[in-house]
Design goal:
The longest helix is centred in the first third of the chain and has 22 residues, at 22-43. Strand 1 (45-48) and strand 2 (52-59) form a beta hairpin. By secondary structure, the chain is an alpha+beta fold. The radius of gyration is 19 Å and the shape is elongated. The chain is built from three helices and five strands. The strands form two sheets. A three-stranded antiparallel sheet has the order 1-2-5. The protein has a two-stranded antiparallel ribbon with strand order 3-4. The protein is 46% helix and 29% strand.
């Protein structure tokens, strides 16, 4: 059994915690995802207090290798997103796993 939460699990947990219906909770989460995506496009980063930061950066173009043929290929630049957990949340997680 995995501890991984999927979207349906998240909707159920938030609905139970708030006393809202799953439909209403799903609408709220959709609005949250939409707002986060818009913030990435506008500012390139989203920070949530006591949780962490989502940061986007552009990777440089580079040379790669086609594993099937061995030929070199050009890999274009692209945007990457990473998550940096907040210090307070990291401490709480470390206490749980210790």
């Amino acid at each position: 059994m995995s501890n991984k939460k999927i979207r349906a699990d998240l909707v159920t947990a938030v609905a139970l915690a708030t006393g809202q219906t799953k439909i209403h909770t799903n609408r709220i989460l959709n609005a949250l995802w939409k707002e986060l995506s818009a913030s990435f496009e506008d500012e390139g980063a989203v920070s949530i207090d006591n949780f962490g930061r989502f940061i986007t950066s552009r990777s440089a173009p580079r040379i790669g290798r086609d594993f099937q043929t061995g030929d070199t290929i050009n890999i274009p630049s692209r945007f990457r997103t990473r998550f940096v957990i907040s210090e307070s949340r990291r401490g709480a997680i470390n206490e749980m796993t210790a």
